[in-house]
Amino acid sequence: MATSKIHLKYKFKKAEDEILRLAIDAVRLGRKLCHDIEFSPEDATRSEKDFLYRVIESVIKAGAKTINIPDTTGYTYPQEMYSLVDDIRNNVPNIDKAVIAVHCHDDLGMAVANSLSGILAGARQAHCTINGIGERAGNASLEEIVMAVKTRKDVFGGLYTDINTKEIFSTSRMISNLTDFVVPPNKAIVGRNAFSHESGIHQDAVLKKRITYEIMDPHDVGISSSQLILGKHSGRHAFNDRLKALGFCLNEEKLNKAFIRFKEIADKKKNIFDDDLRIIAEDEIRTIKPLWGLISFEVTSGTKINPRANVFLSKKGKVVSGISCGDGPVDAVFKAIDKITGYNARLDDFRLEAVTAGKDALGQVSLKLKIRNKIFSGRGASTDIIEAAIRAYLDAVNRLELK
Fold it and tell me: CA nearest 65: which of 37, 23, 35?
């Protein structure tokens, strides 16, 4: 229930007393249904404090066990959040009967800092998300809050979380995979470069003593420095063992499919690294039962010829093909697929990233297609970026077919 004048005037068009009554009634109703009620005075950081105090005191009397203080628009800054939580503790007589929580958005890039300030002021719960995903600019990043509290015990005293930090990195990858939100390389804690050192001086110092430039141990967030490199001669047992070490437990059917995909990639790429294996496993976990499958494709392209693609797909055991020209090889294969499937898809987003270093690196394509006024996400990986693009395109089309 919002408490700021802006929300009362423009969203609810109600007076403070009516909002107060509605808040009390809502908590009382919730109390009849369950024991633990959490109340959020929406837009608390832009609310008049006296009214905010009244609402909080009243809903606690009505049965609220947790009072969440949202910075709904990401408007406040750390000193203000600290003062607000501190003021609530000093001006709400019955606040000792509830836990204070904070819920911070990242519109001004201060969600984590605001959350930590709230914790220092007495909040004992923080709403946060893996990778900081959320509406608009996102929410406070769970991994950053957890590791800040863990790393700076000198600041946070005896405070701790029960988060198993060794699962942070793999969970971040899983969320990125499921949501198609790419983690920026420079993202704190879980970004690809978070524990990388490019400067020669830095590298030399880290080799001598890690703590010279690393305030956290990568192992603490689940990043392993050891890699078992697999290749085309690696067997199914070694493949499965490494997947399990990376946190993937595939059933027999998915393991067989993943191993076939591993062998396909290993025939094209000399060394298969952990990041390659993660992509193979994640793709298999994410994969739906496809209606359309890739058989083969042929592409001709160059600076002096019109790009042309011939794509062969399978559908329910039958092979179908399509030929098309386009503005580049990727556009040509996409138009050929459209001819085969009968969809006139619009490409809304297209991202390509190398999974590992090297000229033979696995490339991963993430894209979004708009078909029939709906958005469908797709992802595909291959050492051939055209093949990766086709696999991603078909992934999106197959998701449409399931609707």
Answer: 37
